[in-house]
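Key idea: predict the complex, not the pieces.
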Amino acid sequence: MNFKKLTILSIVMSVALLVTVFLQKGSYVSQAKEAYEKSTKKTFSNASYVIGAVNSVIENNSLLWEIACDASQQAKNSKDFALIEKRKDTGKILLSPDTKTDKETGYLTRKVAWNSDYYIVASFNKKNNALVGINVEALLGRVKEDTSNGFSDEDLQANEEAAEE
Amino acid sequence: MNKMKIIFISNVVVMIALIVIMLTLKDGYKTQALTVVRQSTKAYTDEVNKTLFAQGQFVDEWNLVWELVFETVNSSDRSLAAFDKKVTELESTYLADAKNKEKLEKWGLKELKLNITSEKTKRVISLAGNPVVTFDFTGGSFKSVDYKALRSVSPSEMFKIKEPAVFNFNAQ
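Result:
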């Protein structure tokens, strides 16, 4: 009787083993899928953020470049410059211009920006309001450190990190 | 009793065989899982990096083109020769920057050259295969520049990445 029970038990174990053989693949597939999705979703999320941010910088800086180039050719004074600025900013992305007097040159400066990193600075003669020049160094990333591509260190770091992942 | 004995022994043999099969398959599945995850993840990362690098290269070229337009409209020397010299200068300045050299290396390039088509009185600059700026030098000196196409460049159409593909355990 005991031997009979042992035989039945061994058959049950065989069936359990057979089930395990069939199920173990599923377990590996599930683990592999989880690892793949975790890794690729992180890459997708980081890279999407960086690509979106850089696309946004290209689009917005394009407006600043256009204002700088148009004004260089058409603006004679601060009034002309402000008019070009207003006419071009159809999407209303620009912040309120920051105007002040440059202590070194004595020129009246007008800083046109869409965020704190990217801007152009137009200088005007205080006596006759004539446009003296436009500084585009911030668009070229040359304000603090020369990166020559118009992107802040934060953008660059994010881009590199996303590329490494 | 003898019949039971035969069933028991046969079953033990089957169990041993099943254990051997299970362990063999286990190793195979483990190796396959590791390989597929590594390869699939790398393939996706490579695809994403390709877009990131293309965007990085585009941005640098795009900036150079805008800088060239800005420098040209503000230059006191309006000759075609001065323009051509300015192009070379901008490209050399770019190359002289250590950070740019690092980037070029990553993109597999030795230098960043603007794509310029030269005509007798015109210089047309293309970005990503599309003409974006036309400089007019009729009479030998700078007359006008058309950068409307450069302004309308839509990076969001050019640089986007796809979501990762559905995981396929049998993809190798």
